[in-house]
Design goal:
3 helices; mainly alpha; about 65% helix; about 80 residues; flat
């Protein structure tokens, strides 16, 4: 936020880099969808001999799920 308000040369450069990073983040799902479609086309063409390889690639394309964490802090004992 500060880089968009300040008008110094370093602040402007930082702001431009931040915007480029957000554009790249927005384009990532599109790139993964394209890779997934290409992988499906290759899997249909070479299904039998390389099934294990294509299954491994599909597992790598699935985003990792973060483990569910419990609450932080102390649990209050219920009164009576």
């Amino acid at each position: 936020m500060r880089s968009s308000v300040l008008r110094s040369e370093p602040a402007v450069l930082v702001h431009v880099e931040i915007m480029r990073a957000f554009v790249q983040l927005r384009q990532m799902p599109i790139a993964h969808a394209d890779r997934s479609r290409r992988l499906d086309a290759l899997a249909k063409k070479y299904a039998a001999p390389f099934k294990i390889v294509f299954d491994a690639f599909r597992e790598l394309l699935v985003p990792a799920v973060a483990p569910k964490r419990g609450r932080i802090g102390f649990a209050r004992e219920e009164e009576g």
